[in-house]
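Example record

The entry below shows one chain as it appears in the dataset: sequence first, then structure tokens.
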Amino acid sequence: MDTLAIATIASTTVSLLSPYLKLVGENLAKEIGSKAGETAWDKAKQLYEKVKSKFTVKPDTAKVISALEKSPNDSDTQAAVRFHLKEMMETDSDFAKELANLLRETSEAGADTIFHTTINGNVQKLVQMGNVYGDVRI
């Protein structure tokens, strides 16, 4: 697998894991009501478990994944996870292929389109394309 593909997989993995871990930390999994949402959640969970199982083998990477669990929005921690993911995928092509497949399945399940938006201030016009699920307050 080429370096660009590995970097893309690492970056996409971290960008999907961060909101997943934030939801876990906030205990919002119970609020996902639709079947599609549950499938997306399950795929994100599988992705996380695959990455965590690889990271917990060594103390230095276990420390990094633990830091991401505690602070999923911290850009420095995300960068450290990306760095270690790239390193792992460069030395383990099977792991890289597994992550690529999980990312494809995760995307097909819609986990890459679940997001949380907070808008503060005076909003004159807001347009949402598609379906809106979860805690919606206007």
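Notes for this example: DSSP finds five helices and no strands in the chain. Confidence is low (pLDDT under 50) at residues 28-36.
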